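Milestone 3.1: sequence recovery, worked example.
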C-alpha cells in the first residue's frame, strides 16, 4: 500500500468513525426488522446497474478499454464513502452501512461473476477476456479496516461516553471531510498532465454512467415503496461504486491499461462530487420544509 493509499484509508476510516458517533445500536435493529430495504439496496448494485451497463455497451460504439472499464466499475460493490455521503444527506445511515457490509461480502463472488459474463458476451471486449482472479484481501480490508472497526469504535464511544461523542462528532466530521477534499485536490494536481480537454468525452461517459446508477437506485427504492430516508440511502448506494477496487483489478488484470485507468479514476472523483452535491441538495430541501 502506497503512502497516498494509506492516507486515504485513514481519512475514510476517520469519516466512518465520526458517522458512527451519531448512530445507535437501535438504528441497526430497525434495519434488521426491515430486510426489504436492504434487499432493495443490493438490487441496483448487482443486477440493475451491471445489466444496464452491459446493454449500453452493446448499443454504443465505444473503445474496448472504455467499455471494459464501465463494465468493471458496474460490477464492483459500493464503497465506504457512500455511508458518509448518506449521513451528510440525512438518509438512513444504518441502512447504508448494512448494505455496504453485505455487498462487500457478496462482491467476493458476484463481482468476478458479473464482470466475466459481461465481458464474454460483449463482442467488443470478448477478446480481452481473461479469468478474473480477484484478491479477497482487497475487499476484506475495506470491510474490516474501513467499515467494521471504525464503526464499532464509534458506536462504543457514543454508547459509553455520549458527552464526549457529542463534543467531537462535528469537528471530527468537518476535519475528515476537509482532508478528503484536500486529497482529491492533490490528486487532481498530480494528474494535471492527464486531465485536459481530450478527456471530456470520457468524463461525459462517467457522468452519465454515474447518473444512471443514482437513477436506478431511486427507481428501485420507489418500486419497493421505501420511506424517504431509506430512498436516499439506496440511491446513494446505487450510484457510488468502489472505483478503488476497480483500479486495483485493472492494475493486476489489465496491466494498468491507460484507457481503463482514466475511466475508473474519473469515476472515483466524480461520484464524490455528485454524491455530495445530492446530499447538500437534500439538506437544503429539509431546511426549506422546516423553515
Amino acid at each position: 500500500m502506497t503512502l497516498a493509499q494509506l492516507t486515504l484509508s485513514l481519512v475514510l476510516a476517520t469519516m466512518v468513525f465520526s458517522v458512527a458517533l451519531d448512530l445507535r445500536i437501535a438504528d441497526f435493529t430497525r434495519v434488521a426488522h426491515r430486510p426489504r430495504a436492504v434487499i432493495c439496496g443490493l438490487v441496483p448494485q448487482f443486477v440493475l446497474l451491471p445489466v444496464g451497463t452491459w446493454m449500453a455497451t452493446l448499443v454504443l460504439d465505444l473503445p474496448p478499454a472504455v467499455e471494459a472499464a464501465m463494465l468493471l466499475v458496474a460490477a464492483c460493490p459500493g464503497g465506504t464513502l457512500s455511508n458518509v455521503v448518506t449521513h451528510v444527506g440525512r438518509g438512513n445511515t444504518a441502512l447504508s452501512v448494512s448494505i455496504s457490509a453485505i455487498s462487500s461480502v457478496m462482491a467476493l463472488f458476484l463481482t468476478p461473476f458479473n464482470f466475466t459474463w459481461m465481458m464474454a458476451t460483449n463482442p467488443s471486449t470478448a477478446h480481452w477476456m481473461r479469468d478474473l482472479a480477484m484478491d479477497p484481501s482487497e475487499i476484506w480490508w475495506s470491510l474490516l479496516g474501513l467499515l467494521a472497526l471504525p464503526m464499532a469504535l464509534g458506536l462504543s464511544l457514543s454508547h459509553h461516553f455520549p458527552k464526549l461523542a457529542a463534543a467531537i462528532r462535528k469537528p471530527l466530521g468537518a476535519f475528515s471531510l476537509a482532508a478528503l477534499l484536500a486529497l482529491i485536490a492533490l490528486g487532481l494536481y498530480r494528474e494535471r498532465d492527464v486531465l485536459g480537454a481530450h478527456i471530456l468525452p470520457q468524463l461525459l461517459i462517467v457522468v452519465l454512467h454515474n447518473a444512471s446508477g443514482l437513477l436506478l437506485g431511486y427507481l428501485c427504492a420507489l418500486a419497493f415503496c421505501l420511506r424517504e430516508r431509506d430512498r436516499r440511502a439506496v440511491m446513494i448506494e446505487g450510484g457510488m461504486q468502489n472505483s478503488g477496487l476497480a483500479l486495483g483489478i485493472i492494475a493486476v488484470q489489465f496491466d494498468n491499461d491507460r484507457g481503463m485507468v482514466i475511466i475508473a479514476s474519473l469515476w472515483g472523483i466524480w461520484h464524490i462530487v455528485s454524491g455530495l452535491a445530492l446530499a447538500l441538495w437534500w439538506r437544503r430541501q429539509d431546511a426549506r420544509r422546516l423553515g
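Residues 64 and 227 are 40 Å apart (CA to CA). The chain has one domain: 3-179+201-290.
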